Each structure stands twice: as structure tokens, then as C-alpha cells.
Amino acid sequence: MKMKQCILFVFFSLIQMSSLGASNSPDSLFSDEYIESICLNEPKRALALLDEAEQLKKMPLYRIDYLRCLVYHNGMEQYRIALDYANKAYHSDFIQNDPMWKYSLLDMMSNACLQLSDYEACIRYVVEGTKSAREIGDKSGEANMMLMHGEAKRKMGLKAEAETYFLQAIEIQKKVVASTRDWHDVDDLLYSYGTLISAYQEDGKYEAAIGLLPEYERLMDKLKKMPDLPDGLCDLRYASEYAAFACIYAQNGEQETARKYYLKYLETNYASSIEGEPIRIEYLLNSGQYKEALQYIGKEKQRYADNGETISFEYLRYALEYEERALAGLGDYKALAETRKQMLAVTDSLNSRDKANAALELSTLYETNEKNEQIRIQADKLYRERIFLIASLVVLFLSLAVISFIVHSLRATRRKNRILVQQIDEMLDYQEELHRAKKAMLDSAATLTSEELPAGASDSEELPAGTSESERKLFELMDMTIDSEKMFLDPDINRDALIKRFGILKNSFAQFIQTYAGTNFNGYINNKRIDYSVLLLRDEANYTIQAVSDDSGFSNVRTFHRVFRDRYGITPAEYRKNMTRKA
To answer: Whole-prediction pTM value?
Structure first.
């Protein structure tokens, strides 16, 4: 009794110790809210917490995969890994049955594909995301999906379709803004207008872009009046608007209006900030102020250098390419050549870095999958051991059942084939007997007069169809002639030859064959070829199937196989095999 109590004491003590030492993290850290709050600034810590949550089963697996997707997408910008986890979460029953979670996941999946330039996949996810947004009545979400759909279409070069989706997104957002008191909704609509304006500007549709200016300014007035507006947001939006339209007016040749908007931009606080200064460069270049543009380009280059960001697409686009345009405008070709040399060097470095990053991301994805696989292997090991015996018995039973079924099926097939062969032989014997009887009747009949024998007509005159009896006799004559002369063995036989030889009206030939042969012309000729092929299969044991097909008048063996099987229900090889066994 004491020994039993000791064992129980040790057992429960071990359980308690294992539960105490299982985690050093409080449960409050294993929550969606906390993980989301640190995913941008502490993505590695967020991933470590999610690994711990999976090991300790603190959260459902679909939520862990969803949050991993969030971390890799928003915090680390590793979109391939984010998409991998998103797909795992997406196929869970919970996500499929919860449109809100489904929409949120599809939003990230669509954007990840957009960033990876997989535009067709992006559109597939966008379509699903649009359905989910409509299902939960989220108009802003629906507009977001429409906008992303347009961006994908534009990347694919389908600019007209992209514009349609941009306009649809704007129309949906207009209805939301009409009844909202949330500044986010107004700001989202401004972003959509900005996307469309940028598209028009890029395509040289300056008048179309300028046409959107009144609506954009009306929305800016509405944004100013919204409650809880973050400090500096309106100033930033105005600065962006003025700088953009200064550039557009300059590109459209309206320099005076462009200058007016540029001065408005200079009046904003954002224009004098580190982030706001560079957005004037595009206007300065388009208005021909190359020297002033170079001053701000130089500041930008220095800022990139100070931050160690000279190997980046932003540095190439917003520093070196701008510098190239300014130097070309000034005609300083020596400096221009040096800038272009820098651009080539940066481009080569970016390509190398992208390749290295892609390889690293794939390696990380592989290692992550390997780690997850190991976790799942450990979890599945006990389960596999428990069901091994049952599975073995089930497999054994199923194997016996399958073997029995196969044996039964083979026997049934052989039996069926033997019956078919017997029926084919009996049918051919009957046809031969019928053929002899018809021939005897025709031989014993009196010679037909010219009125009764359309075959005697000249080649230049077609005899009209007579009575049903005369047509039947004509068909029997034609049928006997085709059989006796084996005309069906000619692969090039056609209806015109028979029409000419037997004087049949061309317009009634198809109905004539259908009435007395019970099929169309091709079926009529193929039936005779098939009957002849059976004789070859039966009498010429050394003939290959190809040889039988050729000698029976078929143009190819595939047609021969198909017609034979359709007629008799077995293949030529099966017929020969069972015919041989029968013999």
C-alpha cells in the first residue's frame, strides 16, 4: 500500500513539475492582440512566442499560422513565407466558415502575390476576398479588394480594365464616406483617387488627372472636419496634393498653374520636413529647374548614404534617376556618364541582393517547414502507434477484398468476352448465309428492264427514286456489289462513286443509306470493314492488328480499334485471344 502511494506521489509530482516548467511566458502573451502589437517592431520575438504557443498548444493551429503570416508579411516583408502560412491557415475549417477571418487572410494573400509579381494568383485571391467582404457587409473591404484588383491588372498591362476597377472602388467608397464620421474612410477614398490620378499621370492623361482635382479638394475639406484626426495628417495630404498637381500641370504645359500649386506646397509644414522636401523634385524637373532640382537630389543622396541605403530601389529611383534627368537637362554629359555608371552598379548590386534574398527566403521557408514537420511528426508518432494494428488489419481485409474483386472481375470479363466472340461468330455465319441467299435470289431473278434497273442509267443522267420496292432492290444490288467487289476495302471510297455507279439521286443518298442500312454512309462502310476484319483475325493468325486494320480498309489503327469496340464491345486483340482459346 505504501509503495503504491509512493508511486502515485512521484507520478503526480512529475506532472506538477512538468506543468510548472512548461512555459516561462505568461498566458497573456499568447494572444492575438499582443502578437499583433509586436509584429512590426519585434517580429523575431513574435515568432518565438508563436513557436512556444504551438508546442504548448496555447492557441489553435489556424490562429498560429494566421499570426505567422501577419508577422512575415507586415514585420519582415518575406512574402513567400507569409503566403505559405496563409495557405495553411486558409484551408482550415474555421477560416472557411468565418468570412471575417477569411477576408483578413485573403487581403494579406492578395498583397503578398502582388509584391511577388504573381498577378494571376493575386486576382484569384482578390475575387475570393471580394466575396467575403460582401458576405460580411464590409464596403471598405470590398473597395480595397477592387483597388488591388486594378493594381494587379495594371501590372499585367491591362490599363483599361485597371481603370474600371479603380473607378468601381471609388464609387463604393463614396457611398461609405457619405454617411461616415470616421476619418479613415475619407483617407481611404483619397488614397484611391491618388492611385487613379497617378495612373492617369503615368499614362500621359493629364487632363483626366486634372479633372479629378475638384473632387479631391472637396474630400480634403471633408477630412479637415473629421473628429479624432491625427496631428499633421491634413498638412501631409495637402503637401502631397499640391506637389502632385504642380507636376501634372507642368507636364500638361500649364506652367503658371503649376507654379501656383508649387507655391501652395511650399506653404505647408511638410514641405520643409526631411520627408517632405524630396517630393518637389519631380515638379522641378518637369518645369526645367534642373539646378534647383540637383540641390535637393544631393540632399537625398546624402540622406540615403547616412542611412546606409544606397543599394536600394528607392535610391535608384528617387536619387540617381532624378539626377540623370537633371544632368541631361543641363547638358552636363560628363557628370551624366558618371551617374549612369553608378546606376548600373546599383542595378547589378540590387539584382545580386535580390537573388541572395530570394535564396535566403526559400532557405528559411524550407527550414521553417522542416521544423513544423518535426513538430507534427512527434505529435503523430503516438497516434500512429495506436492505430497501427487496426490499420494493418484493415489493409489486410481490404487487400483480400480487392484481390477477390479482381479475380471475380477477370473471370467475369473472360466469360463475357467468350460470349461476345461466340455471338460475333454466329452473327457473321448468319450474315454469310443471308448473303448467299440474296445472291441466289438475284441470280435466279429475271434480268431487270431498263426502267427497273437504275444502275443501267447513263453517267450524265440520275434516275429519280422509284417506289419503295424498287429502292429496296437497288439497295440490295448495291450492297451485293460492294460485298462481291470488296469496294469497302478502298480507304478512299466515297459516296460520289456509289451515286455515279448506281444512279442514285445525290440529294436523297443520305436518306437512302439511312433507311436501308440503318446508319450513315461512314457507319455503313465501317460495318463492312469490321465484319471483314473479323474474318482476317480468325483466319490469318500471323497478321498483326495493324495489318488487319490496313487490309480491312481503315486509314489508321486507332479508328479500327474504336469502331471494333463500339460494334462488338471488345477490342480486336481481346477477340483474337478468346477466339484462340475457343479454338
So the answer is: 0.58
